[in-house]
Amino acid sequence: MLTRTDMQKMKMENRKIAMVTAYDFPSAKTAQAAGVDMILVGDSLGMVVLGYDSTIKVTIGDMIHHGKAVRRGAQDTFVVVDMPFMSFHISQDQTMQNAQKLIQETDAQAVKLEGANEEILHTTRRLTEAGIPVVAHLGLTPQSVNVLGGYKVQGKDREAGEKLLQDAKNLADSGAIALVLECVPEELAAIVTEEIIIPTIGIGAGPDCDGQVLVYHDILKYGVDRLPKFVKPYADFNSTGKDSLEAYISDVRKQTFPAAEHTFNIKDKNLLPKTNRKE
Ligand code: KIV
Question: Residue 185 pLDDT more than 90?
Fold first, then answer.
């Protein structure tokens, strides 16, 4: 399993980190079998698995439920679990208890927190001191979609770029082990990547980040209708799945499924219950 030191070494040697989200046993199993470096149990599960229109309704309970399934499917892969909406804002005590629950119950290696205000920097330090590694998340932070005014590219002017760079440095100084950069111009992501000591993992942040992360369902075009510009789909499970289910339904209706090879038999008819049925 990847360690924090390996991640750091990969950054130094310019070997890119490949991360993918997973939300359940089969997606985690497939991600591990494919050889991904890290798995993120993202709160994006609210949208791609639970059908919500944002990540805001996702709870600690949801994250634990899905995190446990991911761990069962990928026992040898570094797993990061998102701290969901408002689970790290109400009080430091509640934040620490939520992080403890997430780590102890899912057996994940790290938690991920969106943002970089004073409170989050403090939380990052406290969690790190308590032995819980933190992955930070800047740029488009979906839990703040209503404050940001939509899913938009962030850091597009000098002031916003300088703030993002300073936030990134503060998070690294506070002990974060990696930084997810979502939807920022590639030029800004390249500067942040060069200026901070921890690996950056980009999603819609261009090729110069130390790693990339994408949502499992986006990569496979699985249950999602519209893909963001930054996604490259590598399969089309929507159409493969639909075609396959249509073929199954048609076989059932035509009575060509199940066939002999899908059926169990009793050869000795004396072993069947007695009825008045004609042979
Ligand atoms: O929840 C998630 O999947 C994420 C990624 C988009 C980075 O935070």
Answer: yes
